[in-house]
Structures are given as structure tokens and as C-alpha cells.
Design brief:
Number of strands: 9
Helix content: 25-40%
Order of helices and strands: HEEEEEHEEEEH
Structural class: alpha/beta
Largest sheet: 9 strands, mixed
Length: 206
């Protein structure tokens, strides 16, 4: 009965279970983030390091967790970019488009900056914990001072956005919403945390 109920709940989400060369559709969420009024304008510069992620969730296939102990992928669907790349692009765009920071760059650009944002993607999957798919993201963020290993602050961010139905395009739409929310949270936290650290340092130097 449990197996039958799960099959009905997933409603033909078509998990990939064979290696046959079926036609594959590529999906490329394009999240856009509006800056919030509470975000500070800062004078310091930032490098966004390439996010790390476990291989199981950072591949081209779209990960889905039908049960807590099981991780599969959707059949006939894949990401145009790896989840870690999508997150990096979304955070960079959110910060650049915000107008609140003058210099924000990728790691390896050859620019020395005041801070580094280090991200670890812990979850990037469609989760059926509630019986219906929800785009679920979990990211651990650390803000570091320059090239030093000293951690200014760290925080774990989560997003869980229910899909409107079990079809893959609906799940992908939910991922786009979750990715935008994650980029917004990370950008706002980075700006506020760096601004607070600068204010503390300035107060100590007086």
C-alpha cells in the first residue's frame, strides 16, 4: 500500500531508472532578484567563490527524493548548468544588479577583494516529504575576510517551494522561485554582515 500510495503521489514524475538514450529536455532557470530596501550600500569589494556540492546533487540530472532514504533523478530532463553554477550565477547577479556594492567578482578573476563568500550546497532536489514535490535548497554560507581563513560569520539558508503539480516543468518553475529566494537571502545577508563587520572594525580603531 505504501508503494502504491507513493506511485500515485508522484503522479508519473518518471524517475530515470534506465540508461537508454531517451530524448532529454534541458532546463535553465533564470531567476531575477529585486534588492530590498534594508540592504546597505557598501564600499568594500567581494569575491564569490565557486560553490561546492556533493556529486550526487551537482550533476546535470535533476535530483528527486521520493523517500527520505532514496535519491533518484527525473527521466528525460536535465539542467543546462550544474546546480552549483546556477547558484553562483544567481548570487553574483543579485549583488551586481542591486547597485549596493561596487566590486563583486568570481574567484579566479585576478582581483584582490576585501571579502570572500564561500558557499556549500547541501541540498538541491525535489523532495516528496509532504507527498507532493517541493524544490528544496539548503546552502551553508561563510563570509571570510580577504584571503585569510578567518570566518567573519556563517549561516545556513533553506528554501522549500512547492510545485503546482508533479510535472517536470512545474517542478523546474519551483526551482526557479527557490533559487531566486536563495540568491536574495544570500545577497542581503552578505551585504548586512560585511557592513556590520566594517562598522565594528571602525569603532575599534577610534
Amino acid at each position: 500500500m505504501l508503494t502504491m500510495g507513493l506511485a500515485l503521489a508522484m503522479g508519473g514524475c518518471a524517475l530515470l531508472s534506465t540508461g537508454r538514450g531517451d530524448g532529454v529536455v534541458q532546463y535553465a532557470p533564470d531567476p531575477r532578484v529585486q534588492p530590498e530596501a534594508s540592504w546597505p550600500t557598501v564600499r568594500w569589494s567581494l569575491t564569490v567563490a565557486q560553490p561546492t556540492a556533493a556529486r550526487a546533487i551537482d550533476g546535470a540530472r535533476i535530483a528527486v527524493r521520493p523517500t527520505p532514504q532514496e535519491l533518484q533523478v527525473y527521466k528525460g530532463a536535465q539542467w543546462a548548468k550544474r546546480p552549483s553554477e546556477m547558484l553562483e550565477d544567481a548570487v553574483l547577479r543579485a549583488l551586481e544588479d542591486s547597485g549596493r556594492i561596487g566590486v563583486v567578482t568570481r574567484q579566479g578573476a585576478g582581483i584582490t577583494t576585501d571579502y570572500r563568500l564561500v558557499l556549500d550546497v547541501r541540498r538541491f532536489e525535489s523532495d516528496y516529504a509532504s507527498g507532493q514535490p517541493a524544490a528544496t535548497l539548503e546552502v551553508r554560507a561563510k563570509l571570510l575576510q580577504g584571503s585569510a581563513p578567518d570566518v567573519v560569520a556563517s549561516h545556513t539558508f533553506t528554501q522549500a517551494v512547492p510545485a503546482r503539480d508533479t510535472a517536470v516543468p512545474a517542478v523546474v518553475d519551483a526551482f526557479g522561485t527557490a533559487l531566486a529566494g536563495m540568491a536574495r537571502d544570500l545577497a542581503g545577508w552578505t551585504l548586512a554582515t560585511g557592513a556590520s563587520n566594517e562598522a565594528t572594525a571602525a569603532a575599534k580603531s577610534r
